[in-house]
Amino acid sequence: MAKRDYYEVLGVSRNVENGDLKRAYRKLAMKYHPDRNPGNTQAEKKFKEAAEAFDVLKDPDKRARYDQFGHDGLKGAGGFGADYQDFGFEDIFSRFSDIFGGDSFGGMGGAHGRTRRRSGTGQPGDDMKIQLKLTLEEIAFGTDREVKVKKYMTCKECKGTGAKSSEDFMTCNTCSGMGEVRQVTRTMFGQFVNVQPCPTCYGEGRTIRNKCGSCHGEGRIKGEEKIHIQIPSGVTNGNYISLNGQGHSGIRGGEDGTLVVLIEEKKHEHFKRDGDDIFYDLNISVTDAILGVTTEVPTLKGRARIKIEPGTQPGKLLRMREKGIKGLKTNKIGDQYVRMNVYIPTSLTDEEKQHVKALKDSKNFDPNSNKDAHENIFERVKAVFS
Ligand SMILES: [Zn+2]
Ligand SMILES: [Zn+2]
Asked: How remote is the CA of residue 207 from the centroid of ligand 1, in Å?
């Protein structure tokens, strides 16, 4: 689905200044905050949309990129494509607090220092972040990985409830089962009802008489899980994949956290990467450069033959079409460039010296007699890099 224009989302003009921007965002954020619209997914969506728009427009650098390139201008920094989350590590709610100054808003600051919409029972599990090192070969075509993650997992004994049996739940006395306590507060925005999660039952509305022996009432235990991760081709350092529900299990049936997989590219022993293109330095002998040769070079897909023409100049780049990386968003395959390094021997036998000396005054070995060849290579190199 296409994203809405950030200015449109916040209902502001394109030359809006910071003060008005903040005011516009605050208005929307208060209107659509999940604690004020429990169970309303439309409001939650609008809330997130506004938070994202504000996050971009309040930052002069991001805003400039957005103004120039639209949503695409923001993709390079992290996150990619519509199938992956574009949003940063921080929970969206932690951004929310920077405009309200901590927990002045009802319901802010839960058991984990942030608030998610409560799903009725339990408390949300924390998000997790792992790093995944990938080789260029894996990046070039995309890959599937299975990783072991140590995390909190739902207790099998009590199925995540934390209770020995279903008879062991009692209505919480502090909040009479409401899960929240209300108090009227005065803030700079006027007076409003401040709703806090109940401190006795942590918002769950019930307490447990006999706790599960296995998890001691938490509904989750420490464990290790194998997680399957699909990595698309063309990712790069700083890209990440968000896997909802694969983070820490929630407490007593609460929502599971998100697992954020941060991509790290391993340095390759032969190749240098430039976007979706690959560069490879090939050492060739003087005689091969002069006489031409057919040889093999490594590529991301294995070895491939390459023809070196007679009279190849040092520094010349040979292009091998579609031997590079399959782009993340473009679906196009990059090229491999092979750079000719002509190896000049540093020590010679007497016999070799004689051969070379014999060529010393030969006309074809005089660089000034064949100027074209020189100009040619600079033209070529320029054409490739421009
Ligand atoms: Zn309570
Ligand atoms: Zn248990």
From this structure: 8
pLDDT tens string 291-314? 999 999 999 999 999 999 999 999
Q: Find the 145 Cα to ligand 1 centroid distance in Å.
A: 43
Residue 10 forms part of a structural domain: yes
Domain termination site, one of 50, 77, 110 = 110
Give the Å distance between the CA of 164 and the centre of ligand 2: 7
Number of structural domains, the chain?
Answer: 2
pLDDT single digits (tens) 341-358: 999 999 999 999 999 999
Ligand nearest to the backbone CA of 162 = 2
pLDDT at res. 76: 52
Nearest 5 degrees, angle CA 17-CA 20-CA 23?
145
CA of 216 to the centre of ligand 2 (A): 6
CA neighbor of 155 nearest in space, from 37, 293, 253:
253
Q: Could you please report the per-residue DSSP string of 311-342?
A: TPPTT-EEEETT-SPBPTTT--B--EEEEEEE
In this predicted model, what pLDDT tens digit does every residue of 50-85 receive, in sequence order?
Answer: 888 888 888 888 888 888 878 877 765 443 333 333
Q: Is 205 left (phi over 0), alpha (psi -120 to 50) or beta?
A: left
Tell me, yes or no, whether 116 lies in a domain. no
Q: Which helix (H) or strand (E) holds 143?
A: strand 143-154
Q: How many angstroms is it from 31 CA to the middle of ligand 1?
A: 26
Q: How far is the CA of 113 from the centre of ligand 2 (A)?
A: 24
Longest dimension (CA), the chain: 104
Minimum-distance ligand to the CA of 217? 2
Q: Which CATH number fits the domain that encloses residue 10?
A: 1.10.287.110
- Report, in angstroms and rounded to the nearest whole number, the Rg of the chain calculated over CA atoms: 31
Distance CA 248, CA 261 (A): 14
Task: Report which bound ligand comes closest to the CA of 181.
Answer: 1
- The range of the structural domain enclosing residue 57 comes to 1-110
Q: How far is the CA of 159 from the centre of ligand 1 (A)?
A: 22
179 alpha carbon, closest ligand = 1
Task: Take residue 148 and report the two structure tokens written for it.
Answer: 């072991």
Q: Are strands 240-244 and 220-231 parallel, antiparallel or unpaired?
A: unpaired
